[in-house]
From TrEMBL, chains A, B, C, D:
Topology of the protein relative to the lipid bilayer: Multi-pass membrane protein
SUPFAM superfamilies: Voltage-gated potassium channels (SSF81324)
Tree of life domain: Bacteria
Protein name: Ion transporter
Record-linked Pfam families: Ion_trans
Entry's localization field: Membrane
Annotated InterPro entries: Ion_trans_dom (IPR005821), VG_K_chnl (IPR028325), Volt_channel_dom_sf (IPR027359)
Ion transport domain sequence ranges: 23-238
Transmembrane segments: 21-42, 54-73, 85-112, 150-171, 183-200, 206-229
Signal sequence interval, chain numbering: none
Entry keyword set: Ion channel, Ion transport, Membrane, Potassium, Potassium channel, Potassium transport, Transmembrane, Transmembrane helix, Transport, Voltage-gated channel
Length: 274, 274, 274, 274
């Protein structure tokens, strides 16, 4: 029984953010994640002193060992470890821990360490407690409702880019940098999204005319996805917001329970609220 | 009678996407269309091995022959072939089949093969069955309702570009790359749409000041079409969505029938639902 | 009396677009305006044959003489010529006619001929009859209602650009192309509006960090004017649309009268509807 | 008592914009602020005559002395000087006055003079009286309500940029200009925000494919913050607008009082309206 209590306490600290200890754990974890990303980024920068690289290497190992302990703790503190291991965060956590071990055997694999950036998404766990949950729930809903339409729209944009790209390839030819149809399609995407690098740009008058038409078109087109999200989001404003906390069920790992819930709404297991 | 049944079955497979066979046909067709576009694109890329070009050439012919058979099958399986041949998709289908035959006689015409990209729009046929139809109907309606206003708006933008372009031509002159008024107008469109290639950029202080004003203006202007589509789309949200399937009438080729319809709502011909 | 009828008929043809003759006049005028703009643009292009420039010069004179006749006709067919001469279109019409005459005395003044582009705005006169009037009225209203807010917003953007530009000047210095504060402010406007020419770009790590912050900020900021117009436009959708035609009062030159109006709503003068 | 009246009058002129004298003072101050910014900017421009720099230096001193007097007047005319000195504008006013004095001792500190641009925000003080107050109140409210959501959104964008940037670093490598992960992340921000300088651009086919995906994604993503502000702003349209004037309490420095208020709504001190 004492062992169970110990496991529950660990579970509460690691998986939940409602208790002071749980909150502290999450904040420390976030700082370590940010530090580790900064270290990986700095490592890729050339021209620092040799000593700095050595320090970065050691710091990297310290953080990796901490992450390893955390990963093991997460597995042992949960009733059904599979629910964690094969969850989105479970895979991210594994991927953000192993690259350094791999780098002992495979050269260059330490660059994969920036997968750790994905762990930053955990920040929403802490924010969950505050009013952000309602916000991001509504935002998520608006994006989800718009997804199908935006997909249809982006698909149409890609079709337009393939056709315009081919036309530009025929009009401009290789001399202007439109070396092949894929390159021309790439140029068309760069133009239609108004990024406009300028590494490839039309030179002939007809090419510039077509480019101008594509741009004006893109200017009108950009209105469409924005309009969709706007309308969906406005529509979602009337929907009620349910207050949810970050309690995690020890049995099924479900982590969205309403305030005051005593049993998991997925598997019926008792929730430990103390 | 047996012949008629055979024709109906073929019609159902080719034109409709409600039966498993019809769905399979459409999916296979889409994959072939995508493959053929990828092949045409790859053919334009320089620096591949000679053998690859030979393979691509053969693959191109295989797909073209399949498209030819499909085109003939579409014509014979319909009661009034003219309705198909002169429809939007009929013309696209013909245009996407003949370039390779033409390339036997005319050099370079195979580049026209990317017209096939337009065939990708068929994807909406398959999606039609799902909830996408409601979405794209509403989206289409919002775009259609906004068209007049966006046209008025884009027309005003073009007038602004002609005037600003001429001013820049007078201010900057040929040294800065503003070689002629059309080029300056082209630059102005590139700037106002926030594409900004950088192949032409103002150099004189007055030119840069005018450019800055154009940009700030463009920043405020971009809000207008977005606002229009947003509002139209929001307004369309209250309109009811009618559920439509992809049944095609064998008589008049009309393909928008409500679920459960037994007769074509355009010509009164019986719909074969089996 | 016969003279008065003649004047009225001319007035109806030139100023109004409700009769077939008036419509035809406006369409011919628009085509001439577009042609004259195309000619002015072509004249600025280098590398055409000497004969082409001669033809363009003659064509320019033909159009200018037509515009001169039109300008005189407009003055004599109206009761109070001052109302026309000092109106927006009156000044535009004068400015688009005299540059060629001036070019006989002053070299280079023919470039001012593109002021004619502003005459293109007359197109809305023809469109007025159709449903476009409602559209552009509502659009104009939404823009007018948003103007104050967008001005406040753009002003804040300029303040941000001045401060960020100065910071970049201090950080990057002259080596990276940030030669002076005005140039840095220009760069900041180019960046914040997402145009991004690339003629000036930060080189130092701190400069790139600040640039990244400016961009992310600009990404969030661009939402503001769009949101304003969207909301205003949606709000204006509930307002009723009054049907207006292009009847022009011969007395006071007011040109917005409701369908079926018999007297001018500004001065009480009788409207000639025949 | 006479001294108190004198202080009140000064207070009314300097801090408030409801009387003609107060309005005039604010307009003169704004013109001086704009002039001083123009002078600082011009000073950074190279290639002007030596005499111009001398004039600019003198003008700078004249304005600084005026600002110094204004700063002292602000302190002595208020009952509790601390409320002003440590307020936002108090700090800005100090920062915009001292750099020139500092420049006598420290070389280069005069560049800090553009902090004066922040003083331009005072313009809203004058505009306050007009209908702008309602507008900017609503705008401010919409932005404030959207802040949390836009922050969540921008945070997600940064995470996406870190991951995509690292991928591009691995794919493109140093040859294409992707020298380190921070540089690649910088490139990714430049691309996703559609700025697109073109100083760094992908060269390999896989890099260009990933870049195209990032752009299309960015195109869809830009819709989100716009949608949020639109919806919030539209929602705020129903809220009532309270008319507020720029009366400042001599006791607690609170400056938002409703029209006709006789006592400060923060400390209960009498407001001098004469």
């Amino acid at each position: 029984m004492s062992n169970k209590t110990w496991k529950h306490k660990l579970h509460e600290i690691i998986y939940e953010a409602d208790t002071p200890a749980g909150k502290l754990f999450d904040v420390v974890l976030l700082i370590l994640i940010i530090l580790s990303i900064v270290f990986v980024m700095m490592e890729s920068v050339k021209g620092l002193s040799a000593q700095t690289y050595t320090y970065l290497y050691y710091a990297e190992w310290v953080i990796t060992i901490f992450f390893t302990i955390e990963y093991i703790a997460r597995i042992i503190s949960i009733n059904k470890p599979k629910n964690y291991i094969f969850s989105f965060y479970g895979i991210i956590d594994l991927l953000s821990t192993i690259p350094l071990y791999l780098s002992l055997f495979i050269v260059g694999s330490s660059a994969l360490l920036t997968v750790r950036a994905l762990r930053l998404l955990r920040i929403f766990r802490i924010l969950k407690i505050s009013r952000y949950v309602g916000e991001s729930n509504r935002l998520a809903k608006a994006i989800k409702d718009s997804k199908a339409k935006i997909f249809v729209f982006l698909f149409a944009v890609v079709v337009v880019c393939i056709i315009s790209g081919t036309l530009m390839y025929i009009i401009e030819g290789e001399k202007s940098g439109f070396k092949s149809i894929p390159i021309s399609v790439y140029w068309c995407i760069v133009t239609l999204t108004t990024v406009g690098y300028g590494d490839i740009a039309p030179v002939t008058p007809i090419g510039q005319l077509l480019a101008a038409i594509i741009m004006i078109m893109g200017y009108g087109i950009i209105a469409v996805p924005t309009g969709i999200v706007s309308a969906e989001y406005a529509a979602s404003q009337k929907a009620a917001i349910v207050h949810i906390n970050s309690q995690v069920c020890t049995n099924c790992h479900s982590n969205k329970h309403q305030d005051g819930a005593k049993f998991c709404n997925k598997c019926g297991h008792t929730l430990f609220n103390d």
